[in-house]
DNA sequence: CTGAATCCGATCAGATACTG
DNA sequence: CAGTATCTGATCGGATTCAG
């Protein structure tokens, strides 16, 4: 059974890979995390997500909407008002994403130590090669 | 408590974001999934992962090694033999990744339907605009 | 306010050639 | 076998401008 689950990873063009690439992109995780709390407007999202450009937020939201993870609601008022909300499907994804973020939170110190050790080892090797 | 966990997502430069970008990249997930089964050699990984170039596999493995997720072992024989194995830290990450892949497997049909509906709706709107 | 469209520099990643 | 180095086309993404 486990073997069946992991069969996917040998094929480049399979559906799972496409979806993984989508939900693993830079801003999608953040958008989903924020919308899980509550419905938000475009400008609210832009203000909350530090570093995102207007263009990339728009692109990200369109992708999420297309995949059925986010619902876009246009209110016919002036000035325009557009609300973004997580769909039920998006909510189930959020549960999975949450475990990923929690793991990162718990292990970031461990990883920082590993990086320092690696960098120190590489630097030491380069000194050996530089002065033979 | 939930609020603390999700505090991270408003800052672009925080450690968690860097780590997420790393483990969410195109090939890392596949490498970790394969190495969880058993230790593998460079060429074995390359053959198993459809579509990866030699360069990108090397880069991915160096990143994972630096983060302490993968261990690289060089055997001083000819021809050269290099084994890659998941570290204990990498193994804990695999558990999290697995839930992500399982979610994708379970919902890929749902997403495919949503995409079709979205594309059809966009196409219909464009027809309305094209022939007024 | 919420976008769409365009331009353009930066980065990424594949192909190729070379090495121990 | 297991890489490194280099070149180059492709893609990404930010800044800017315009529109409903």
TrEMBL record, chains A, B:
Pfam families: HxlR (PF01638). Residues 14-112 form the HTH hxlR-type domain. Keywords: DNA-binding, Transcription, Transcription regulation. The keyword Electron transport does not apply. The keyword DNA-binding applies. PANTHER family: TRANSCRIPTIONAL REGULATOR, MARR FAMILY (PTHR33204), TRANSCRIPTIONAL REGULATORY PROTEIN (PTHR33204:SF39). This is Transcriptional regulator. It comes from Streptosporangium pseudovulgare.
């Amino acid at each position: 059974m486990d073997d069946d689950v992991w069969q996917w990873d040998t094929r480049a063009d399979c559906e799972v890979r496409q979806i993984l690439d989508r939900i693993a992109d830079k801003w999608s995780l953040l958008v989903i995390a924020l919308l899980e709390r509550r419905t938000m407007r475009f400008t609210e999202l832009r203000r909350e997500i530090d570093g995102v450009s207007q263009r990339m937020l728009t692109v990200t939201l369109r992708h999420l909407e297309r995949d059925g993870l986010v619902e876009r609601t246009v209110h016919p008022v002036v000035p325009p008002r557009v609300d973004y909300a997580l769909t039920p499907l998006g909510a189930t994804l959020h549960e999975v994403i949450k475990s990923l973020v929690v793991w990162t939170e718990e292990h970031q110190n461990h990883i920082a130590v590993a990086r320092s050790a690696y960098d120190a080892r590489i630097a030491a090797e380069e000194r050996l090669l530089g002065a033979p």
